[in-house]
């Protein structure tokens, strides 16, 4: 079915353009997840430093901060498919370079090379994440957007389940095999994207001025519920995120190898995928504010449980619960943004939203690494979980309308979706 057709499909399952989009997103996310596993294990093997693990996350995050306003304007002014395609090809080149270095094809992978390529990866992610988010409403009609948001999130989680585990197993054979798979995924994603037909959108005609760059910031600021939701996710995951320390847990606490690291990286996505499947079938329709805050509290408790665990099975279970609870806030936040933002400014709003996501993940990895270097690994993770609980309690007081919000979209906001 052509996405430009005025007819609205009855079911997302039969809407072919969305599934091309979904598969592209699987390739993009799988590639990034495999890079994360391989780079994390490689840099820790080279240096044995928790701080260096955190620095990798920080270096991937910094381009998002520096480019956030420019990225949003670029995504609104230029072809979003082309932006993602270029990002996929650049990251394919990064994977090829790391693969050649790991195979000692004339040079070797070093700490400095990993740091430099982490900046390049972060730059690519700065563009491809908001571009993919802004592209979705041009792929599916507004009537299918809520289930499409949950299904698109499931693409990330499906990739995060399979890719890190597969990457970890391949790494045991040699890092070059892991990077070879990564290269294949990025090239496959670019091919799929080239076959995706989308509804044409009118590029923003605003000149790239400081005022136009700040539109996304002002829009989010003018919607207290959206601001509260994305900032809650930012600080909760920033404090509670322990993914940067998984190589330490895998090797020194749980006593597994790269395969164990891959499974640990996949565990949050297992829980998140199951939750996204549930939300596709049973969307959150009532008391969304209370549900979101309860989910953040569960996220904090699961983080504490993981931090204290010395059992591989219990650690996997805690991470799965952590991922399931995080998925709830992801779906709520993304639905807010997509349904309440006009198409001509979706790039700028998505760029700001992407910055919050990046801050909670990559900056959270740096925070975890730095805290672990100061306090020790287990105290750092437990303290992060406690911090998440405190943030949830504080945000309920700072954003009372969000805590009391009954529906995802209410009032005139729903009308802007079209």
UniProtKB/TrEMBL annotation:
<feature type="transmembrane region" description="Helical">
    <location>
        <begin position="50"/>
        <end position="71"/>
    </location>
</feature>
<feature type="transmembrane region" description="Helical">
    <location>
        <begin position="20"/>
        <end position="44"/>
    </location>
</feature>
<feature type="transmembrane region" description="Helical">
    <location>
        <begin position="83"/>
        <end position="107"/>
    </location>
</feature>
<feature type="transmembrane region" description="Helical">
    <location>
        <begin position="372"/>
        <end position="395"/>
    </location>
</feature>
<keyword id="KW-0472">Membrane</keyword>
<keyword id="KW-1133">Transmembrane helix</keyword>
<dbReference type="Pfam" id="PF05977">
    <property type="entry name" value="MFS_3"/>
</dbReference>
<protein>
    <submittedName>
        <fullName>Major facilitator superfamily MFS_1</fullName>
    </submittedName>
</protein>
<feature type="transmembrane region" description="Helical">
    <location>
        <begin position="226"/>
        <end position="250"/>
    </location>
</feature>
<keyword id="KW-0812">Transmembrane</keyword>
<dbReference type="InterPro" id="IPR010290">
    <property type="entry name" value="TM_effector"/>
</dbReference>
<feature type="transmembrane region" description="Helical">
    <location>
        <begin position="262"/>
        <end position="280"/>
    </location>
</feature>
<keyword id="KW-1003">Cell membrane</keyword>
<keyword id="KW-0813">Transport</keyword>
<feature type="transmembrane region" description="Helical">
    <location>
        <begin position="292"/>
        <end position="322"/>
    </location>
</feature>
<dbReference type="InterPro" id="IPR036259">
    <property type="entry name" value="MFS_trans_sf"/>
</dbReference>
<dbReference type="GO" id="GO:0005886">
    <property type="term" value="C:plasma membrane"/>
</dbReference>
<feature type="transmembrane region" description="Helical">
    <location>
        <begin position="179"/>
        <end position="198"/>
    </location>
</feature>
